[in-house]
Every structure is written in structure tokens, then in C-alpha cells.
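B., you asked whether I could sanity-check this one before it goes into the benchmark set. Here's the sequence:
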Amino acid sequence: MPTTFARRIRPILFAATVLGVGFAAGWMLRGGSGAAVAEEDATVLAEAQLARFYDAISGKAPLADVLGEAFQIMRTDGTRYDRAAYLERPASYGGYALSGVKGTMAGDVLTTTYFTTATGTVGDQEVVSEGEPRLAVFTRSGGAWALQGLASLGNGFIANPGEAAAKAVEEWVAAAASGDKARLDKVLAPEFQIVRADGSAYDKQTYLAVGLPSYPTPPEVADLDATGYGDLLVVRYLLTTEVDVGGETLKRNAPRLTVFRKAGGGWLVVAHANLAAPEG
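And here's what the prediction gave me:
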């Protein structure tokens, strides 16, 4: 009897083992496949939510319907807005394209990184961006998604930098010609450097300490040409100054090259090349 019972139970145990292994393998396969689908679904969802936002700032839908109550945006120049402030001064795009979208999701939080190519206005500047990185966070409440955070990690080329450059140069030249160190200090970036045609060079601290140039009349700026990308302006121009030589006032023209960095609502001088030929 024991032998007969063993023979009968053996196939049952074998079948149970096979089924157990099968169920385990099937569960593992479904689990792995489910994880991949979840990531794909998060990216598809991110693409859809980003499209809602960019359609809104392109004038195709109400922006208020996309932004969450806790919304904030931060740009590389340090400017930031909450929901109310951004609704008053949103970016305005004429066209856009998104690429490299990657979404991840946990519960009701959707995080996405991506790159944007766009033309439009950001702040007071017309910009042309190409492949600029972004990070966005959406949350879901009551089945609806809302954008709560956006990190804008670059704004691309400044389409028409002339006006901003002229204002930045005007403030820089006026501060340098004023002889007021406190005023000059406000327009110089912490990383400021200056180099002159004679080879002399200074950082911010030494430049403020060595003594400032003095002009009988404010210098004149002409032939200004500017390029801009993101938070930087590169400007070349001709500076005309008056100097006293033997009791006679003479005008001297010399080229300059200045690099500015946007900080808040203004521009700080990062680097300046004074290309005036040495006297003598």
C-alpha cells in the first residue's frame, strides 16, 4: 500500500511543482513587463501634460487651467515667479517642439525632464531656443493634472539683443565715468575682470581699489553690435571720450568689448576689454 500510494501521489506533486514554477515565472514576467509599461506610460503622460502647458503659453488654451496653486518657476538668471506673478508675465511662444521627454511617476506626482526648441518672448526678451533643458513637476488631484514646478535651464539665443545691450552698456559706462565706487560696485559681477591694451588687468576688488578714470564729459557710445544667449550678452562698441592734453580737450575713439550676465531685472558686467591703444 505505501508503494502504491507513493506512486499515485508522485504525479500530483510533480504537477503542483510545475504549476508553481509556471505561476512564479508568469508572475515575474508580468511584473517585469508591467514596470516597463509603467515607465512608458509615465513618459506618454508627461508628453500630454507638457503639450497642455506649451499650448497654453502659445495662446491656444487658458494658462490658468494648467498651473497648480503651488506653481513656481525658476530661470537660470535667478528670476522666479509664483502662480499669480507668472500669470501676469508668462512666456509667450509662437512655436515650439519638445524632445527627449522622460517621465517618472510615483502616486500622484509626475516628474519629467525634456528639451525644448521654441521662438517667442521670455520676460522682455525675444528668444530663439534650441534643445534647452527643462525639468517639470505635475501633481494629480481629483483626476486632473496640474503643473506645480518648472526649472528653465536656458533660454536660447536672444533674438533682438540690441535694446537690452544698449541699456546695459549705458548703465555700465555711466557708472564707470561717475567716479562713484558704490555705484560702480552695483553693476559689476563678483567674477568681473578687466584687461587693457597695455596688458594691465584687474579683478573686481583690485579694479575698485586702484582708482577710477575721470572724464570731463560723459563718454559717447557708437557702433554697438550685440549677440546674446540665455543669460549672457556680448557687446562690442566704440567709445568716444574727452581728455585734457596740455590745456586742450581732445576726443579719443577706441573699441570696447563687454560681456554682461543677467541678474534679476538688470545686467551685470562680467568681463570688459578696453582696447584703447597705449599712449606714446
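One thing to flag: The first strand starts at residue 67 and ends at 75. Otherwise nothing jumped out at me.
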